[in-house]
């Protein structure tokens, strides 16, 4: 499914033993879609000799640093954003 | 959740950031160019490069310099694809 | 830089200078094998090396300086930095998408690649070792204000810090704030204030003399 800016999204915490570009520190976290990027070839399959099609939508997803780290020492409004592929995102409850 | 050695975000560390810089050595520039060329020709794409680096033993990953990781990856992928035969680079080194 | 030995046709020993690590010989041996097999070409390797050593932060600085003096250009830069670079005959590099992140009075951006070392090197030159280092990759996302303090930058509490982890195909470039008291400066002088570190987001630009 696709997402739009402003939507709350949850990053999957599923296990994935092969190459993938979703950092561990974001898995299971909830953030907000900030930008909708183009589609890009899927690195998870390109890494193993496949052509990476179908291309996957990439989103810039923003998180509050206080949500990511229980002991975060910084400004209350501090945020982090990362590019996450669509197939790693679910609508947040 | 166990993390792979390359997946570093938020990894607990007290290590200060060493801000010393070095200009890339000739061999590093060459390694960079080799990888770029392999990418252009399709012999090894950037995702294969990263996948191979991520397959390093964690201790080896931590100890290797940046372009040593690239060399490891190039050898791994090229051997996987039969471009390099087993031990071929070692034999060339011994020549 | 000693690339002369690549011009020889005869096989040669993989000598390394006293300063080079053992890995250097292995890389040269790999090069020789791949040249012999026709997997890589000498000319292309040379062109790639020439390109990489010619990349400097001056290119990124030109984009920033133009954005400081030209609001319309800034709008275009923020919409599509890759296209804006091409407008100024600046090589944006092979990345399909480059995004410029504007620092304002209220927002300060900082860029990292926690998974490896993704970096807009066409615009900034090769990344510094610290950007690729394990401590930076770890702490930039969990203790960014601590990292900035190590770099000598303390942000006000009411400035929102935005860390961007470039995890995929997008490359990010920070557009730092124009320093105060620079109204009299021309574009070239402004560009000279824009440091590489200010375009990564770990420093502010230089101040006017």
Descriptive notes:
The complex is a heterotrimer of chains A (93), B (95) and C (209). Chain A is mostly beta strands and 93 residues long. Chain A has a single domain, classed as SH3 type barrels. Chain A has helices at residues 43-46, 65-68, and strands spanning 8-11, 30-40, 56-64, 79-85, 89-91. In chain A, strands 4-3-2-1-5 form a 5-stranded antiparallel β-sheet. Chain A is globular, with a radius of gyration of 14 Å. The relative contact order of chain B is 0.13. The radius of gyration of chain B is 15 Å and the shape is globular. Chain B has a single domain (26-94), classed as Orthogonal Bundle (Cyclin A, domain 1), CATH 1.10.472.20. Chain B has 5 helices and no strands. The mean pLDDT of chain B is 96. The longest helix of chain B has 16 residues, at 26-41. Helix content of chain B is 56%, strand content 0%. Chain C has 2 domains: 15-53, no CATH class; 55-200, Nitrile hydratase alpha /Thiocyanate hydrolase gamma (Nitrile Hydratase, Chain A), CATH 3.90.330. Chain C has 11 helices and 4 strands; from the N terminus they run αααααββααααββαα. In chain C, strands 1-4 form a two-stranded parallel sheet. Chain C has a two-stranded parallel sheet with strand order 2-3. The chains are: A mainly beta (93), B mainly alpha (95), C alpha/beta (209). Chains in contact: A-B, A-C, B-C. At the B-C interface, helix 1, helix 4 and helix 5 of B face helix 1, helix 2, helix 7 and helix 8 of C.
Order of helices and strands of chain A: EEHEHEE
The rounded distance between the terminal residues' Cα atoms of chain A is 15 Å
Largest sheet of chain A: 5 strands, antiparallel
Quaternary organisation: heterotrimer
- Let me know the average pLDDT of chain C: 93
Instruction: Write out the strand line-up for the largest beta sheet of chain A, numbering strands in chain order.
Output: 4-3-2-1-5
Radius of gyration of chain C: 20 Å
Q: What is the number of domains of chain C?
A: 2
What proportion of the residues of chain A is helical, as a percent range?
Answer: under 10%
Largest sheet of chain C: 2 strands, parallel
Spatial shape of chain A:
globular
What is the structure about, briefly put?
The complex is a heterotrimer of chains A (93), B (95) and C (209). Chain A has 93 residues and is mostly beta strands.
């Amino acid at each position: 499914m696709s997402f739009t800016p402003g939507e709350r999204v949850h990053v999957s915490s599923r296990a994935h033993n092969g190459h993938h570009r979703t950092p561990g520190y974001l898995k299971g976290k909830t953030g907000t879609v900030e930008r909708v990027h183009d589609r890009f070839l899927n690195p998870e399959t390109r890494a193993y000799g496949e052509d990476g099609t179908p291309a996957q939508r990439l989103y810039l997803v923003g998180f509050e640093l206080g949500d990511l780290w229980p002991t975060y020492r910084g400004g209350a409004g501090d945020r982090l954003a990362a590019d996450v592929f669509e197939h790693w995102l679910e609508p947040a409850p | 959740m166990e993390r792979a050695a390359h997946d570093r975000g938020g990894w607990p560390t007290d290590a200060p950031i060493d801000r010393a810089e070095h200009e890339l050595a000739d061999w590093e520039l060459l390694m960079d160019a080799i990888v770029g060329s392999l990418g252009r020709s399709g012999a090894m794409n950037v995702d294969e490069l990263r996948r191979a680096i991520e397959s390093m033993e964690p201790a080896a990953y931590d100890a290797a310099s940046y372009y040593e990781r690239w060399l490891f990856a190039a050898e791994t992928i090229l051997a996987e694809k039969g471009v390099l035969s087993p031990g071929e680079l070692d034999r060339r080194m011994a020549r | 830089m000693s690339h002369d030995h690549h011009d020889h046709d005869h096989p040669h020993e993989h000598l390394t200078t006293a300063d080079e690590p053992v890995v250097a010989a292995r890389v040269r041996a790999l090069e020789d094998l791949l040249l012999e097999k026709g997997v890589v070409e000498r000319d292309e390797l040379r062109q790639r090396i020439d390109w990489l050593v010619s990349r400097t932060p001056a290119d990124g600085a030109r984009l920033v300086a133009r954005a400081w003096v030209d609001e319309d250009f800034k709008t275009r830069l923020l919409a599509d930095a890759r296209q804006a670079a091409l407008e100024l005959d600046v090589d944006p590099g092979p990345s399909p998408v480059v995004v410029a992140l504007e620092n304002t009075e209220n927002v300060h951006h900082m860029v990292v690649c926690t998974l490896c070392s993704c970096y807009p090197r066409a615009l900034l030159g090769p990344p510094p070792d610290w950007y690729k280092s394990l401590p930076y990759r770890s702490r930039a996302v969990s203790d960014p204000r601590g990292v900035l303090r190590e770099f000598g930058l303390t942000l006000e509490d009411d400035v929102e810090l935005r860390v961007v982890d470039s995890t995929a195909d997008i490359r990010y470039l920070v557009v730092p704030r124009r320093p105060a008291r620079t109204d009299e400066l021309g574009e070239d002088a402004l560009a000279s204030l824009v440091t590489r570190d200010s375009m990564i987001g770990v420093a502010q630009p230089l101040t006017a003399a």
